Amino acid sequence: MKKIQVVTLFPEMFEGVLNSSMMWKAQKEGAVEFGLINLRGYGIGPRKQVDDTPYGGGDGMLLKPEPLFAAVEAAKANDPTAKVLLMTPRGQRWKQATAQSYADADHGYIFICGRYEGYDERIVSLVDEQVSVGDYVLTGGELPAMTIIDSIVRLIPGVLGGESSAEIESFSDGETLEFPQYTKPAEFRDMKVPDVLISGNHALIAKWRQDNSFKADL
Ligand code: ADE
Q1: In this predicted model, what pLDDT tens digit does every residue of 40-84 receive, in sequence order?
Q2: How many CB atoms are located within 10 Å of the residue 190 CB?
Q3: 35 and 72 Cβ atoms separated by less than 8 Å
Q4: What letter would DSSP give residue 140?
Q5: Is 115 helix (H, G, I), strand (E, B) or coil?
Q6: Ligand 1 centroid to residue 215 C-alpha, Å
Q7: Domains contained in the chain, CATH given
Q8: Rounded to the nearest 5 degrees, what angle is found at the Cα of 126, between the Cα atoms of 124 and 128?
Q9: pLDDT higher for 200 or 170?
Q10: pLDDT tens-place string over residues 158-180
């Protein structure tokens, strides 16, 4: 059972995503266990302060180190071998091959979700890996964390329905995206399913799929 813990100021953002579809199924089947850690709970003083102004001046507030260290240490106490990941646009770009190796590894993960204004740089000393979902800036690390968690969990053995479906699909060989697919009806609003797919000729179908696979620009 893989343990995935998330340190965030907005645990409610995760509820719908983690408790629907494949991720709900993965939990129900005991392949994964999620833990949401509210950073606010580790805030300082009666107002549970988690951020403060930057030294040297500047706009915005930065996440303070003490609450984040305490929250990550609590997560580590639950799962001492877990790898700590910081969501940041400065990080390594997330790829399908990385998702696969994270799914295969026999340890858990602790995701730290930053906020858009930033964090005290000393937080980086807690972290094993800094990860980005792309060259654009989001308001916080929550959406990246959900994206990355989904991409890992669906690759944990036994989570996807057909065991071969993860193998033939997009990006699994590093560049091929899956081919176009159709279901019934064979004709819909003047748009026809290619004849070859209805032919029953498996060799021709395999060739058509190969020829029509999308190529990714990776
Ligand atoms: N936080 C804000 N933008 C991000 C991105 N592109 N990837 C990961 N974390 C982020």
Answers
A1: 999 999 999 999 999 999 999 999 999 999 999 999 999 999 999
A2: 5
A3: no
A4: B
A5: strand
A6: 26
A7: 2-153 (3.40.1280.10), 176-215 (1.10.1270.20)
A8: 85
A9: 200
A10: 898 755 455 545 555 555 678 99
Decide: 127 and 65 in contact? Cβ < 8 Å: no
pTM confidence score: 0.91
How many CB atoms within 10 Å of residue 10?
A: 17
Q: H/E/C letters for each residue in 84-127?
A: EEEEEEEEEECCHHHHHHHHHCCCCEEEEECECCCECHHHHHHC
Rounded distance from Cα 137 to ligand 1 centre (Å)? 5
CA dist 190 and 124 (Å) reads 57
DSSP codes of every residue in 155-207: TSTT-SSSTTHHHHSTTTTSSEEPPP---S-SEETTEEPPHHHHS--HHHHHH
Measuring CA to CA, which residue among 65, 69, 99 is closest to residue 84?
Answer: 69
Residue of 87, 92, 98 to test ligand 1 pocket, by largest number of atoms within 8 Å of CB: 87
Vertex 2: Cα angle to 78 and 94 (nearest 5): 105
pLDDT class of 217 with cuts at 50, 70, 90: low
**What is the 8-class DSSP label of residue 135?**
S
| Cα-to-centroid distance, 125 and ligand 1 (Å) | 18
